[in-house]
């Protein structure tokens, strides 16, 4: 990969992380720890499953998930889960292509940029120390 490819990957991760942070804030979900990220992903699965079962109920019943606001929340949860998964896959590919040191630097720069944009540290589920140092 060229330097332009590297910059493009960095920009993609930054954009994904920004959207992830915005979704987490909108949903009231914390992503500051690995456990919270895992909980958010699992919760997204449960919300999607609940919606699926809600759609399969008798049409005369009023399902909690049938409201427009609930469908919107479900969609946001599904998007959050998909973006977290997508970012993980991109980061894994980045490690393979550029190595651990370059990936660590990319994530530090991404986290710094998010903080400059007003997000709290860890808002997008990036904990560089935990990821690379096990702290």
General description of the model:
This protein is elongated. It has helices at residues 3-27, 34-55, 68-98, 100-116, 128-133. The chain is built from 5 helices and no strands. It is an all-alpha fold.
Explain briefly what this protein structure is.
The protein contains 5 helices and no strands. The chain is an all-alpha fold.
Topology:
Blueprint: H1 3-27, H2 34-55, H3 68-98, H4 100-116, H5 128-133
Helix pairs in contact: 1-3, 1-4, 2-3, 3-4
List descriptors.
135 residues; mainly alpha; 5 helices; elongated
- Count of alpha and pi helical runs: 5
Given the helix and strand composition, which structural class is it?
mainly alpha
User: Which stretches of 5+ consecutive residues score pLDDT under 50?
Assistant: 58-62
How far is the N terminus from the C terminus? Answer: 31 Å
Shape: elongated
In round numbers, the mean pLDDT is 82
Number of domains: 1
- How much helix is in the residues? over 70%
Run of helices and strands: HHHHH
**Number of DSSP E strands:** 0
Query: Proportion of β residues?
Result: under 5%
Radius of gyration: 17 Å
How many strands, which pairing sense, and closed or not: the largest β-sheet? none
């Amino acid at each position: 990969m060229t330097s332009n490819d590297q910059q493009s990957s960095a920009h993609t991760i930054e954009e994904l992380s920004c959207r992830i942070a915005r979704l987490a804030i909108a949903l009231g979900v914390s992503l500051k720890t690995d456990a919270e990220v895992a909980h958010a992903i699992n919760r997204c699965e449960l919300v999607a499953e609940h919606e699926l079962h809600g759609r399969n109920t008798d049409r005369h019943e009023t399902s909690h998930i049938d409201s427009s606001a609930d469908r919107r929340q479900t969609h946001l949860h599904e998007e959050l889960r998909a973006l977290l998964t997508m970012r993980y896959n991109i980061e894994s590919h980045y490690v393979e292509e550029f190595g651990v040191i370059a990936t660590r630097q990319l994530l530090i720069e991404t986290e710094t940029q998010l903080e400059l944009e007003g997000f709290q540290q860890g808002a997008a589920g990036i904990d560089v120390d935990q990821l690379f140092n096990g702290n």
